Amino acid sequence: MLMPKKAKYRKVRKGRNKGLASKGNTIAFGKYALQSVGTERVTARQIEAARQAMTRHIKRGGKIWIRIFPHIPVTKKPQDVKMGKGKGNPEYHVAKVKPGTVLFEMDGVDESLAREAMRLAAHKLPIKTKFLIKEEF
To answer: Residue 65: what pLDDT?
Structure first.
């Protein structure tokens, strides 16, 4: 599962995730891409589930790029613990996704196979997505 090797600070505040993606919003590596339409926090487990769904559908044929990485730790306090006594321990990591962010890219397969693989991956994610094709000039 994806997670940072080292973290300078262990705990991070929740913050806000407003606005549109200004970076990572174009197709850079592959021919086909899955782009987010909404705003959400995507967990490392959801990214891995989507990657597995795509890889299984294309039968390890083409190449897949994951364009998001879960850097942000999410803390949680244990069950049946009273209020106060500080912040909980990091439980999992998330990637903050804004509208327009390219989540996955794919190349080396035909369009119908890529479209179906991306559809299967989109079902594993908590955000609305759309399928993109790189325009060749």
So the answer is: 96
Predicted confidence band of residue 137 (pLDDT cuts 50, 70, 90): low
End-to-end CA distance of the chain: 37
Four-point Cα dihedral 30, 46, 92, 5, nearest 10: -30
In sequence order, the 6+-apart residues with CB closer than 8 A to the CB of 74 are 41, 43, 90, 91, 92, 93, 94
Do you know the residue count of the chain? 137
pLDDT, tens digit, 9 for 90 and up, residues 70-122 = 999 999 999 999 999 999 999 999 999 999 999 999 999 999 999 999 999 99
Q: Are 132 and 106 in contact (CB under 8 A)?
A: no
Query: 19: Cβ–Cβ under 8 A, 6 or more apart, which residues?
Result: 98
DSSP state of 134: P
